[in-house]
Amino acid sequence: MSARLGRTEALSLLSLSLACIGILANTLHGDGEPLIASIAFSGLAFSFTYALIRWLGNAFMRAGLKGKDLSKLRQVEIPETMGAVCAVVYLLTTIVFIPWPFYKDIVAATSGGGNRDVVLELQQVETGRLLHRFPHSKLASYLSAILSLQSIVILGIGDDLFDIRWRHKVLIPAFASIPILIVYFVDFGVTKMVVPTPLRPYLGELFDLGWLYYVYMAMVSIFCPNSINILAGINGIEVAQSLVIAVLIVFNDALYLSPFTPYPHPATDSHLFSLYLLLPFIGVSVALLMHNWYPAKVFVGDTYCYFAGMVFAVDGILGHFSKTLILLLLPQLFNFVYSAPQLFHIVPCPRHRLPHFNSRTGLLECSIVEFKKPLAFPIAEALKLLHRLRLLRIETNEKGEVISSTNLTIINLWLVWFGPMREDRLAMGLLAFQTACGLVGLFIRHRLALWVFTQDNL
Amino acid sequence: MSARLGRTEALSLLSLSLACIGILANTLHGDGEPLIASIAFSGLAFSFTYALIRWLGNAFMRAGLKGKDLSKLRQVEIPETMGAVCAVVYLLTTIVFIPWPFYKDIVAATSGGGNRDVVLELQQVETGRLLHRFPHSKLASYLSAILSLQSIVILGIGDDLFDIRWRHKVLIPAFASIPILIVYFVDFGVTKMVVPTPLRPYLGELFDLGWLYYVYMAMVSIFCPNSINILAGINGIEVAQSLVIAVLIVFNDALYLSPFTPYPHPATDSHLFSLYLLLPFIGVSVALLMHNWYPAKVFVGDTYCYFAGMVFAVDGILGHFSKTLILLLLPQLFNFVYSAPQLFHIVPCPRHRLPHFNSRTGLLECSIVEFKKPLAFPIAEALKLLHRLRLLRIETNEKGEVISSTNLTIINLWLVWFGPMREDRLAMGLLAFQTACGLVGLFIRHRLALWVFTQDNL
């Protein structure tokens, strides 16, 4: 990877940045439309990330943050932990963006120009034409979101530097979720959930989960980052899956906005909030993906996986759509459940479970774990059953004992189903699967939810 | 340094932690006194930092974060960047502390016990017996303080990893100050200052600085971290000077609290706010100092210097005593002005300006910069004047040209004044100077301020 931007690249980034700055300057003259400002900020974040990844690559290599790509013929060293660059640009963007949605004494632009001191009452603002401003009280939750994201970046960098053990790693997002949980506790304390219709005779319409609600939020925060972190290992898959999820959430958010849903809708604010967190995320992730897609010129590091997962967790919790979020993470959930026997050492787990690179064909094949000792009877039978269901591939010796199995990850399963293929085709396949699952999930969310709830909140 | 805690250490830390947890549990039964909770949290933060520094030392060394102490006979490698451990524990502590001062619906303990649902009106709370609770609206500024501190930790770690150039480094705190500036803008926007009496005929009683006030706050944020970062280089000096400053600010804060000043006093809230940020800082810093004092078993890294400076900056800005803060940083200010000719390359500046270690005597001597080319006439004359004022020491050749000078740091100046001495005595001397300056500063602040202002706000 060249450390300098090419002429075309530099010109494109520069013109994109200038266009975005122009749009931003324009929002200052008008009502300061936060949604348009957010889009412009995302463009700026893309440009900065793209340029910084190039400029900082060598510095990362010098600091020892580098690795070899095992799935290539020529194994040159490339920079690692580039997700940290993404994350820092993202954090800066979301912080600088604060005045747009939250400025307290909203200055109304007058037609005469110049007289910008007319201050609207907050009530008038909320119901009036400046409909996209937030009530100022939401500032604390926005700040807590950024705090949680900063925490996960610090802990993620620690993980990338010190190679923390898996069983400690799992708890990293738990620490990072403390800010949003605390501010949620101090600021809202709403722990009631809507009860599905069939259960209403027993539980009533709203059920107060109490402190269990905090446990639930903590579990969402732990699940999202870790589930993205274990669906990883081939070029581009970490960033691309995060982008697919982000775009699907943005699509879902858009359903609650003006042309699709009449204003005022009670959930509009929550979904705008979600958009403001996601749009810059998409900006920085696209820039990273352009360097991480096959053949990768940089690696993203655990920092990125944690960071991306935490963006979704924070977004789902503070946007009040954490159940919808889980629907969009179904492939990750499947991968986690499917991996669990190896993660919890019920089945032996090798150090790496990446697909195996066949240097003769240039294709990826499923990687295999060999069982030195014979497996316990129920486990062996379970593996044989999964083999018959085509959910993994085992080999048996002449005595009928299971001597090896493909590793239990969705990436290997894809190779079991469709045979060896090149790294980018594998990534494309998984992404198509992710997209399809997500769209079905959203369809279920908005069409079939009426079976168990009295109404869709759309 | 042993990676394990000794038996006595482990027992002491454990009993301190248990005592603090007991105190915390007790605050939950009573009115939840935040000040007592803050002291208990600081004790916990001390214990965690102390233990973590020991446990993580080897991991830091393995990750390449290590360095040699040039001022020792045996130059063994010891862990670097240990300030990052401090900072992370500090951030976690300040986040977990949030519910104590800010919990919205304050639950009043009733004498009967058990009935904890009596909720006091906020007004009653502010003026009533729960006087140490904050109005909930201050939450955003507390969060912005933590955001700024997290930002500086991320950027500081980046600096320690990548060895950023000096001229880029200076701006690191500027980036980290963005969160407090933005939230200040969104949340308060108060940019007026009290005008000193002699100027009132011209400017009025209050003068609106407008956007210049933001420039001023940014400059305070840039000055504090950098000024601590350049008064560094001998064992313990970075942490110990920060501790002296922190203790002096705590002393000043205490002047505004209950036994000294009758409640309600308009500045009580600001100074409580300041205490809540400083007490845990003192906790983590003492733990670090115990490992960093002569002979140092760990180094603190730029991360610590930036972090400590930013704690003061944030504290001074949000506690509204930034001018008092500057009085406490007079030695740092002097060191900055004194160093400026070298920092801005008016006088040649070597890579390191640490005192020179004389391995024969075991003492530190002033380090010297030699001038290969003759200096320009006015600069040479200025150095000669400073030499005559005993503010540095130069050597001249037979032609009267200046051929060398002591490096322009307050540490070297101390050695010019008092001759070679051992590293810990040098540090002690500088700390005594820092303390004396600070006390005089505070005296000026509260006694002599009446000459230029109509009243002391105490």
TrEMBL record, chains A, B:
Subcellular locations according to the entry: Endoplasmic reticulum membrane
Matches recorded under Pfam families: Glycos_transf_4
Role, per record: UDP-N-acetylglucosamine--dolichyl-phosphate N-acetylglucosaminephosphotransferase that operates in the biosynthetic pathway of dolichol-linked oligosaccharides, the glycan precursors employed in protein asparagine (N)-glycosylation. The assembly of dolichol-linked oligosaccharides begins on the cytosolic side of the endoplasmic reticulum membrane and finishes in its lumen. The sequential addition of sugars to dolichol pyrophosphate produces dolichol-linked oligosaccharides containing fourteen sugars, including two GlcNAcs, nine mannoses and three glucoses.
Record GO biological process: dolichol-linked oligosaccharide biosynthetic process
Membrane topology: Multi-pass membrane protein
Similarity section: Belongs to the glycosyltransferase 4 family.
Keyword Transmembrane: yes
Superkingdom, taxonomy of origin: Eukaryota
Gene Ontology CC, one term: endoplasmic reticulum membrane
Protein name: UDP-N-acetylglucosamine--dolichyl-phosphate N-acetylglucosaminephosphotransferase
UniProt catalytic activity: a di-trans,poly-cis-dolichyl phosphate + UDP-N-acetyl-alpha-D-glucosamine = an N-acetyl-alpha-D-glucosaminyl-diphospho-di-trans,poly-cis-dolichol + UMP
GO molecular function terms noted in the UniProt entry: glycosyltransferase activity; metal ion binding; UDP-N-acetylglucosamine-dolichyl-phosphate N-acetylglucosaminephosphotransferase activity
Cofactor: Mg(2+)
Keyword terms, alphabetized: Endoplasmic reticulum, Glycosyltransferase, Magnesium, Membrane, Metal-binding, Transferase, Transmembrane, Transmembrane helix
Membrane-spanning ranges: 35-57, 78-100, 139-158, 170-191, 211-231, 243-261, 273-294, 306-330, 426-444
Enzyme Commission number(s): 2.7.8.15
Matching CDD domains: GT_GPT_euk (cd06855)
Primary subcellular site in the record, as a coarse category: endoplasmic reticulum
Metabolic or biological pathway: Protein modification; protein glycosylation
InterPro entries with a match to the protein in the record: Glycosyl_transferase_4, GPT
Keyword Transport among record annotations: no
